[in-house]
Amino acid sequence: MNVESFNLDHRKVSAPFIRIADVKELPAGDVLTKYDVRFCQPNREHLDMATVHSIEHSFAECVRNHSDAVIDFGPMGCQTGFYLIMAGSPDVSATCELVERTLRDILELAAVPAANEIQCGWGAHHSLEGAQGAAAAMLARRGEWEQVMA
């Protein structure tokens, strides 16, 4: 299939994990790497939408304090994780360190960034508590992130 994740057997992975989902070389020679940052075991658990929304806002804001290579951070429709798109060649270990630093930042937040109707299309639909709980759960299993398959 054309979508990389549709070719992944979701029954064989063991979340949480961070894996390379795609690498694109652009016409000018720049490289983009898309990482699958999976919080939940597919088809067994998922993040509620207020939590997804708040992780998206918080991570997208905080990660840019640590890296200028971040292109985008967005949720998966299945609510089990996110895609992190970075400029540059793949480096899973460095990306795990970046994700760890960013999740630790989320634990320190007093509010979800831009969670208001001026800066967000659904500013009332957030859960800082949910985002911090998911970040803490992901961090508690930090040693497993580079092991994708069960």
TrEMBL record:
Purpose: Involved in the synthesis of autoinducer 2 (AI-2) which is secreted by bacteria and is used to communicate both the cell density and the metabolic potential of the environment. The regulation of gene expression in response to changes in cell density is called quorum sensing. Catalyzes the transformation of S-ribosylhomocysteine (RHC) to homocysteine (HC) and 4,5-dihydroxy-2,3-pentadione (DPD).
Subunit structure, as described in the record: Homodimer.
A molecular-function term among this protein's GO annotations: S-ribosylhomocysteine lyase activity
Annotated residues for binding of Fe cation: H53, H57, C120
Biological processes per GO annotation: quorum sensing
Keywords: Autoinducer synthesis, Iron, Lyase, Metal-binding, Quorum sensing
This protein's name: S-ribosylhomocysteine lyase
Co-factor note (free text): Binds 1 Fe cation per subunit.
Domain of life per record: Bacteria
NCBIfam families in UniProt: PRK02260.1-4 (NF002604)
Record-listed E.C. numbers: 4.4.1.21
Pfam families per UniProt: LuxS (PF02664)
Cofactor: Fe cation
Lineage: Bacteria, Bacillati, Actinomycetota, Actinomycetes, Propionibacteriales
InterPro entries: LuxS_sf, Metalloenz_LuxS/M16, S-ribosylhomocysteinase
Catalytic activity: S-(5-deoxy-D-ribos-5-yl)-L-homocysteine = (S)-4,5-dihydroxypentane-2,3-dione + L-homocysteine
HAMAP family, per the entry: LuxS
Family under the similarity heading: Belongs to the LuxS family.
Gene that specifies this protein: luxS
